Write the structure tokens for this entry.
Amino acid sequence: MLLDNFYFIRSYEPADYSLKAVLEFDGAHSIFKGHFPAVPVVPGVCMMQIVKELFEKHSGKTARFTKVPLMKFLSLINPLKNATVKIDLLYSIIDENNFQLTASLLNENVVYFKFKGVATVIDSTNKQ
């Protein structure tokens, strides 16, 4: 889990099947020693994990991504220059175990990451 370690929620605005939040990255986090020491960059896999964690926080469900037809990394996030970003997350119910998600990490001038995918609920007997 990256929440409250790699990133922190500075504002959180939940609505029905959507949320908007402002996140702040810890630019001193050890992950940036390897990604990358001279110019830190938020790893793409961490952006995906943030979407997953915030979906789980909002929906109250534990899930994994099972389909990802769109994932675009449009601009680098350097936590020393852009420590805070916004996330817009929207989801809809496909069926009782599957949700369609759309999310973006952005600020006023730049879209860093776009995501569309399916999150499938993991029950305690079926965790992988």
